[in-house]
User: Fold these one by one.
Assistant:
Number 1:
Amino acid sequence: MSTGVRVLLALVALVLAGTLALLALDVHGVDETFRADDLRFQRNPGDSALWVTESRLPGDLGEKMLGVADDRQFRSGVRFFRLSGLRSQSRSIDQSTFQQAAELELSRVDRTDSNAWRRSAAANLRGVINLVEAATSDESGQLLQRSLSEFRNAIRLNPENAEAKYNLELVLQIAAENPPSDDEGGGGGRGDTPASGAGAASSGSGY
Amino acid sequence: MTAWPERLRPSRRPRIPLADARGLAGVVRRTSLVRLLLAAAIAALALGTFLLARGLQAPPSSYFASGAGGIVVTDLSSSIDPNKYRRIARVLKSFADTNQPTGFVAFSDTGYEMMPPGTRGDELAPLVKFFEPVGRSGSHRFGTGFRYPQNPWAGSFRGGTRISTGLTVARRMIARDGITNGTVMLMSDLDNSPFDNPRLAKEINLYEKAGIDLRVVPLFPAPEDRSLMYKLLGPEAFVANRELLNNATLRERRTLAGSFPAALVLAGAALLLLLALNEKATARLAWRRAVA
C-alpha cells in the first residue's frame, strides 16, 4: 500500500473517529438534558424550554438514534396536563387551552407510542380530563363513559397501573350514585369490563 | 439405452457433436441456475419498477401532498392587512394557474364555505383580484398606501379571529364529501382570539383523529402567535417560504411539483445492469460463418 493511500485512510479514520466522538457526546447530552429537565419540570412546569437538546452534529442524529421523540411527546402531554390546573375552582382561558393541548398530546401518545407504560399513563390522564369535564359539562353521562373507557384502557395496557385502578373504582362509584337518565342513554357499566382489568384485583369494592 | 441429462437431451438445433458431452453436465447445471436466478431477479425488478412508476404522483403544486386536492381555509379577519394580502394572492394564484382542485373556506369569527371541495383551481382566479392592489392612495410607505378593490366580505366578514371556526367548517366539508386523506391548508396571521385557543387545540385533535393533514401558510405572524401553533402542530406543519416561492413560479416553469423519483431511477438502473449481466454472462455462443 502506497504512503498516499495510507495517509488518506488515516485521514478518513480520523474524521470518522471525530464524528463518532461528537455523536457520543450528543447521545450523552440527550440523556443528561432529559434527566435535568425532569427535575426542572418538578420545580417549574411552566418553563417552555424543557427537554430541548442541543446537537453538535447536523440532523439531530443523537436524538434520532435514541428515539426520544415519543418520550418528549409524553412529557409534553404531562406538562400541559399539569399546567391545565384541573383542580382549580375557577380556571383561566390559558388553563383551558393547556387542557386541550394536553388532550391533543396524550391522544398522540396513544396513536404513535409503542411503549405500553406510557400509553397506559396517557390513557389514565385522558380519563381524568374527561372525569373533570363531566363535572361541569352538559354531556356528563357521555364524558363519564369516556373516562371509564380510558381507565379500562389504561389498566388493559398496564395491569400494574394502580392510579388507573383507583380512578376506575372512583368513576364506577360516581356512576352508581348518579345513574344515567333515560334521555342520556346508557351502555358501558360492568358488562364490558375486561376480565383481566381491575375487576380481577382482590382489594376495593369491585368493578 | 443411454440416459441423457435433462439439459443435454439431443435437440434438433445444429450442434457440435461432442464425445464427452456428459462431462459438461456440471457446467450446464451451473449455467442453468445462473440463468434462472437472473431471470427471477429481472422479473422481480421489472415488476418493482412497474409498481414504482404506477405509484408516482405528481401534484400540480406541493401544497396538497396526495395530488387529490384539499381545502384552503383563509383568514379574512380585520388583522389581515395589505402586506398579508400579497401572500394570500400569491397562494391563490398558484392554485388558479395550476388548476388544482380545491375547496375554499373563509373565516373571521365565523367560518363560511365559499367553494366546495373539488372546485377547479381556476375558479379561484376571480378572488385573486381582491387581494391585489389597483393603485396607490395618499401614503407611499411600503406595504401601505395601496388601494384595493371593494371586496364582498368587507362589510360583514371582518371581525376578530377565531381559527377554529374555519377549521371546523373544513373538517365538516371533508366528512360530508367522504374525502379520505384530506389536506387542509390554513392561511392566517395566527392572531387568534385567546378565547378560541381551547377550541383550536380541540379542533386540531379532531383533525388528527380523522386523519386530516393540516398545513399552515403563516401570514407574517407575531412570534407569540406563531409559538402556540408551533407547540400544537410542530414546525413541519408550516409551509416554508421556499415552498411558497416554488409553487408561485410553477406556471412560468411549466413543470409539476414532484420530488425526484430516486427509487424508480435506481430500480431502472439496476434492471438495465441485470439485463446487461444476463447478456454478458449467459448468452449462447455465437460465431460468424467462415468466409468462403
Number 2:
Amino acid sequence: MRMELALADTIIQRLPASTSSATETRPSFTEMDTVVLDSVTKRFRHRPALFSWLSRERSGETRALVEVSLRVQRGKVLVLLGPNGSGKTTTLKLISTMLLPDSGRVLIEGADTCLRAGTVRKHVGFAVANERSFFPRLSARENLDFFASLEDVPAKIRPARIQTMLERTGLQDTANTLVMKFSSGMYQRLAIARALIKEPSVILLDEPTRSLDPASTACFWNLVRELADQGATVILTTHSFQEAVAVGDFVAVLHCGRLAAYQKIRNIEVEELRSFYFQTTGELNHIDEFR
Amino acid sequence: MKGLLDKMAAVLRRDLLSALRYRNGFLLTAFASAAELASFYFLARAVGPGFRPEGVEYFPFLLVGTGFYTFLVVGIHSFLQIVQDAQQTGTLEVLMTTSTPAPILILLSAISAFAGHMVQFVIYVGGGLLLFRAPLGNPNLPGCALVFLLSAAIAVALGILAAALQLAIQKGSALLWLFGSGTWFLTGTLFPIETLPRPLHFVAELIPVTHSLNGIRLALLQGANFEALRGEILYLATFALLILPVSVLVLSHTLRRARLEGTLSFY
C-alpha cells in the first residue's frame, strides 16, 4: 500500500503546476486494477548500419517512455492523448507484450508481461493502427476465423462469435469479400473485430476511428462504452478531444515519453479538455487561429 | 493436442486458400517444373548412357537429386519467407500477440509450407519417372521415408534458424542465398561429390544435405537396405537431435530480443 501511494505521488508530482486543478484525480489502487504500469521505461537504441559514414547515420537512443506509472480499473476507459512520438503506441505495445520494458513492470490482471507473457496475451486484444495486418487473399470472415483459432476460441462457437463481431463492427455485408478489396475504414473495423474476437478483458485500440466516417465513428463510440459497461477495460489512443470526451472515463496525457497528466474526464466539455491538453503539453494551440 | 490440430488446420486452410487464389502462380510453377524436367532429360541424353553416377542412370540421379534438394532448400527458405512476409504485411506483430506461442506459430506455418513442397516433390519425381520412363529398381520405401523424415527435421531446424536470422538482421535471405548456392554445388545434386577436390569433398561430407541426397538415392533408386543406409541415417539423426533444440532456443532468444529492441516489425 505504501509503495502504491508513493507511486501515486510520483504521478502527481509530474503534473505541471497549471494543471493542478480540482478535477485532478489520483489513479486509484485497488484489486480492481486490470492494467498497471509501474515506473516503466522504454528506450529504442539506434545502431548505425554498416558503412554508416556514407549516410552520416548516427547511433543513439530514443526514450519512448520514461518512468511512466498508471493504473486502469476494470470496466473503465482510459484515453491516451499526446503529440506524435509521445509514447502512446509504445504504451499499448508494452501492454500487449509486443514490446518488453527496459525497466519497471507492466501487469495485466496481475500477470507480469515479462514473466507470464502467455497469460497476458489471453487477456489482451489489440487493434493495431497498421491497417494492412491481414491476409489479403482471405475474406474478412476467413481472416477472423484464422485469428479466432489462434486465440483458442472453441471451434463450436467460432462461427457465431465471428458473425457477432462482424455485426458489431458493421461488416456483415462484406464478410465474404477478400480483404485486399477493403477501404481503410473497413480494415480498421476488421482490426477492431479481430481485437474483440476472443472477448478479452483488456482492449487496446490504437487510433481506432482514424479512417472511419462520422456515422461509423458514433457507432464505434457506443460499442466502446458498451464494452466498458460489460466489464472490459479499454485503453485507446486518439488525437480527437471529442472522442476522448465521448468514450473516456480517464485521460492520460503523454508528452516526450513522460506521463504529464492523469485526469478524470467523465462529464467534461470538449473545450475544457482541449485547453487542459495544451496547458499540460505546453504546445501552442494553433487551432484558435482558424476560428 | 486438439487445440494444436485445430490451429494446424487453420494454418493449412489459410495457406491453401491463399495459394488457390493466386491462380497464375500455380500455373507458372507447373510450367517451370515441366521445363526443368525436360531440360534434365535432354541433358542426360546428351551426356550419354555411359555416365552412371553411383551406378544409376544419370536422369533419375538428376531427378531425385534436384527434386529433393529443392524440397529441402525451399522448405528452409519458407520459414524465412513466412517471417519476412509477416514483417512486410504487418501481421507479425499481431500474430506475436495472439494466445499461440510464437515458435509454435512459426512451426505450424512452416509445416504447412512443407506439406505444399512435399506434394510438389512427389509430383516432380513421380511425374519425371513416369513421363520419361526412367527405370526404378526395387525401392526401399520405409528407408526412403526415414531419410525423408530426418532430412525434413533438419530442414525445419535450419529453417527456424533462418527465421531467427531474419528477425535479428532483417536480411536473412542474403545468407540463405549463399547457403543455397554453396550446397547446390557441394552436395552432389548434379554430380557425385567424389569428383570434387579432396578439401571440398571433406566439406561436402559435413553438410547434412549431402547425406540426405545420398540416402534418398540409395533407398529409392538402388533399393539399398537399412544396413547400407545406416551411415546416412546415423549422421542425419545425430545432426537433427543436436540442431533442433538449438534452433528453438535461438529463435526464442531472438524473439525476446526483438521485443526488447522494438524491431519485431523491422524489415
